[in-house]
Amino acid sequence: SCCEPCINRLEIREGRYAGTLCVGLHANSGYGFGPRFDIDDPEVIIKATAICNDLGIDIDNASTILSWAFELYERGIITEEQTGMPLRWGDGEALLRMLEDLAYRRGFGAILAEGFRAAARRIGGGAEYYAMEVKGQGIIDGVRTSIAWGFGHMVSTRGARHLDGSPTTEARDISPEEANKLFGVPTAAYQTAYEGKAKLVFWFENYKALTDALGICYFSTYWGSTEKLGPEDYAKLFKAVTGVELSAEELMRIGWRIHEVEKAFNTLHARFTRRDDLPPMRVFIEPVKTGAWRGFKLSWKRYNDMLTEYYRLHGWDPETGWQRREQLERLGLGYVAEKLKRHGCLLD
Fold first, then answer.
1. Are 93 and 101 in contact (CB under 8 A)?
2. Which of 60, 105, 236, 244 has a Cα-to-Cα distance from 46 of 20 to 30 A?
3. What is the pLDDT at residue 348?
4. What is the number of other CB atoms lying within 10 angstroms of the CB of residue 6?
5. What is the DSSP letter of 287?
């Protein structure tokens, strides 16, 4: 009865992968195991997704670290002697074998299973430069030609994930007037504009945290379409269910508080700083090679200016990216400030 038909059940009944059952093949599986590997066989994509489902593997991380290995092989940084098989684009069998080797930590898969950073140190030979990751998490989406979408990946508390602060507005037909009314950002739909994008990501990450807290499907919200549920709708629904009246602004502030707790968790347990909110250097050096955005690459200066503005909106220190006591206490998170202070990672 859900209004968002996103779950499906796929079965392969004949051929090499007969008997394969797969539930919930989403977009990330499609382009993660398809075009990323130059594979156009839907059965390989279904089989790869089923392996991830059955073995409890994150599809984004699996597809990104394996495609990194394929690129390293293509560039001669790793060899068949290391991998145990040729890793050539378009080879679905190699993808599936490496996916299982990754899961069971067999051969070269055991090295990849350690994650991008540990694997890059072991491989050497410049492998780190080609690792498309943020905070150790693989980047599955394009992040150079949609500024806010990409920026949301970089500052995501989970690292390189679009289901935190990445807005979809740059792919939608939203007028400057409507965008300003909804988000306070007239440029929300301007794909390559840097102006206002820090504020847009700040808005969406608080909105997403609130959405999760309310148990609402993100596809049924502004992220899916500005004709769907927004903060004002949340306030009405919350009152109808709980009898408690909170304004849209008060609810969005709750989302902000949630995000600050996530940020503090990362600081305490991973010691993330500003450098962990930066994308790989490749996106500043290598331009898009084909298509409508051929030649486009991110600007180091404009990205860093945007990041500084994002920190200002949060009340964080622009040099380190760490939180400040004043802002945490203003949000009613004094206990978080005290814990950060005890561990030497709070700016008073």
1. no
2. 105
3. 86
4. 10
5. P
